[in-house]
Design brief:
Two copies of one chain form a homodimer. The first copy, chain A, is built from 15 helices and 18 strands. The first copy, chain A, is an alpha/beta fold and about 425 residues long. In chain A, the strands form three sheets. In chain A, strands 1, 2, 3, 4, 5, 15, 16, 17 and 18 form a nine-stranded mixed β-sheet that branches. Chains A and B meet through helix 3, helix 10, helix 12, helix 14 and helix 15 of A and helix 3, helix 10, helix 12, helix 14 and helix 15 of B. Chains A, B: It catalyses: S-adenosyl-L-homocysteine + H2O + H(+) = S-inosyl-L-homocysteine + NH4(+); S-methyl-5'-thioadenosine + H2O + H(+) = S-methyl-5'-thioinosine + NH4(+). Chains A, B: Its EC number is 3.5.4.28, 3.5.4.31.
Chain lengths: ~425, ~425
């Protein structure tokens, strides 16, 4: 049994920030919030000085294609189909385990540096992604992207099933597995029904893209006479629990379905802006009690994995989009980054700093100039903070970042391997 | 005569990035780009190793109310008039030289840390702001905010005139002064005509807010039968040169006037989003050849002074707003941050890395994880970079930041004084 104490820290808990608190961790869970007097006669294996820091639940990145970090800034400022057809798809044909594993390590390191303690991912070569997650110490919810209309349809189903059997609840319980039907427009009803049957057989949840672009929704309505969300609902995709990325083009009926079927939303403001998809009606979703977390999407459409920047975007863009300065106030944005994200990924003991919850904790250094003068802390966190303020990151009670340095990851090796595998990939094109 | 060399650096010049370049500085100006061979027999007073770095023209923050840094995160998530009437205006009545000087020093330090080498400001107690600019080494274009409809109208005119006489072209030429008629809705035609007369007498340019909110434009049309831009044009506000902040609600006629009268725009995406003002049609402005720079606006409506974040916002939001992924490509965003901003402030020898130009230079550290793998550098700068990548800042040939540390500014003193003056201000309310 290992006991860790974080001393004298600002604590974000129950929607407020309290100063001068202590957080006690026993193995992988938070075991209490002792007073200074309690600490006099307790002994700890590890003591972290939280002076000046703010402790928040670890940040959750609810939507990523982490191996696509290899395509960061490889091809930008293009139309979506042009980008996919001339750049991404041809290059994806040349991916291998080596590229995926090393680019995943790069992405994981970047996410930890930004305070992220868990992420959801959908891609292929997911066994290699799972290996990187297991080794690095981060928490992840993985799925194999499945497109029923491509030649990989059968392989994908088989691989996602195997991924579940091999990795669900593995890696000290840090890995969970969902099924990843890619999107309505890359699938058929028959294939999606097989996905639903598999989900029910395994007890697996679904991670998908839904209603990302206006074109997707129009095409779906033309083809099936209903919205992507109504179609997925009809096919049973929401029956075992569903994490839906984007949900930009949703109407009132869609929102009703999402609320009723507890569809959880991965909101990716950076990607939605950059790809010119649009701006999701997040204010309305929250009003209806729909769970919303934040995601970066892949680095190829962002182009970083900085989830604090997504929080900042989420706190800003909806105000202008609705012309309402009161929509998504500071604490709502911070909550989406933490508790909302954890709920979106289906976690029941992550996303809050509470006794019995997993010790996924981010400590934020508040010594930067942009944290002065000392006015409202929640507002500073939502509107002024920068991911380079992240000082310390714990996942499952284990310290992965301390004093802004990685404790378990060899950064120079990661950069070298990222560069080597990128060069190898592009040389093969 | 002092000679400085920046060796072996990536150079952003003529819209592209070239690696392994050298930049020679003589006193306050760039004096050439010697080859490695040239360097063999030259001697320098100071050598900066640019290995791995990217040199860009110093970033320009085209719109700020820097003393309002005291109000950073003091009051957020409120309606504009509520915020002004219950929070900002009552507190502004208690400002003094001490508060303004020290909060200005805080804001200047934050801006330098973010790579900013010059900024435009409009507020009051501008003599204290000028003093902070002179001492700190940054470059600034200052104006006294003038509201014709308030009791300070006469004082403001007198103070802006005196500011021009005392500070224009002072501080080693780093300070320029404009006249600052606040906005259409806080002024009268008669008062604005006096401002125009003063501008013509002094040969001074104008810095103002224009067409920031939908309500402002509607009210102006009701009152004067024309848009704020048409009204200002008619009154002669554009005749001596004009820097106009926001320009969110502008129609085709307004854009024609702006192009014809060379109105230069300070685009403040963060503030426009946060205050729910809307999204300015920047793509259309650039198409018409209108000069656009980026601004943070005051920290009270942002809530930081991170101009790289504004670049990132500008590169993203217009794509979603127009549903066009090709609008504001990476290099356009970088150009607004540098050359566009310098032109907006009326500088003719700043904003490019060219022989004879002022040595206002920002060096960006590219060792961060988010700069890997090494794909397109311009795209990485626009979409992936973070202001904490800024390593070195020179203004007028003088090094203000080196290895991410301030060389001339005492940061702990600045934080202490910012806190002291904030407490003093709020204690007096």
């Amino acid at each position: 049994m290992k006991k860790t104490i974080i001393k004298n820290v600002g604590l974000y808990q129950d929607h407020v920030i309290k100063e001068h608190q202590n957080i006690e961790i026993t193995d992988d869970r938070i075991s209490g919030f002792p007073t200074d007097k309690d600490l006099l006669d307790r002994v700890y294996d590890e003591t972290l000085d939280g002076h000046g820091m703010l402790a928040t639940p670890g940040f959750v990145n609810t939507h990523n294609h982490i191996a696509m970090t290899v395509f960061r800034s490889y091809a930008d400022d293009m139309n979506l189909m042009d980008w996919l057809q001339t750049k991404i798809w041809p290059a994806e044909d040349h991916l291998d385990s080596d590229v995926v594993y090393n680019q995943t390590m790069l992405g994981i390191a970047e996410m930890i540096r930004c305070g992220t303690t868990s992420f959801a991912d959908m891609y292929f070569f997911m066994d290699d992604t799972a290996r990187a997650v297991a080794e690095s110490g981060i928490r992840a919810c993985l799925s194999r992207g499945m497109t029923g209309i491509t030649p990989s349809a059968e392989t994908a189903l088989k691989e996602n099933r195997q991924l579940f059997l091999d990795w669900h609840k593995k890696g000290d319980g840090r890995i969970t597995v969902m099924l990843g039907p890619h999107a309505p427009y890359t699938n058929t009803a028959a294939y999606l029904q097989r996905v639903v049957a598999l989900a029910k057989e395994l007890g697996a949840e679904i991670h998908t893209h839904l209603s990302e672009t206006k074109g997707e929704v129009e095409e779906c309505r033309k083809k099936y006479g209903k919205s992507p969300i109504a179609w997925f609902d009809e096919l049973g995709l929401f029956d075992t629990g569903c994490l839906a990325a984007h949900c930009v083009w949703v109407d009132a009926d869609d929102l009703d379905i999402m609320a009723r079927k507890h569809v959880r939303v991965a909101h990716n403001p950076g990607s939605n802006l950059k790809l010119a998809s649009g701006i999701a009606p997040i204010g309305k979703m929250l009003e209806k009690g729909i769970t919303v977390g934040l995601g970066t999407d892949g680095a190829s459409s962002n182009n970083n994995l900085d989830i604090m920047e997504e929080m900042h975007l989420a706190a800003l863009i909806h105000k202008a989009n609705t012309l309402d300065p009161l929509v998504i106030p500071a604490e709502t944005a911070v909550n989406m980054l933490t508790e909302g994200g954890a709920k979106a990924l289906g976690y029941t003991d992550i996303g809050r700093l509470e006794t019995g919850y997993k010790a996924d904790i981010t400590l934020i250094d508040r010594s930067g100039l942009h944290w002065y003068p000392r006015n409202d802390q929640m507002s500073l966190l939502a509107y002024a903070a920068n991911s380079f303020d992240v000082d310390t990151v714990l996942v499952n009670g284990k310290i992965l970042l301390r004093n802004k340095e990685f404790t378990t990851i060899d950064i120079e090796k990661i950069k070298h391997e990222a560069e080597r595998t990128k060069n190898k990939l592009f040389a093969s094109l």
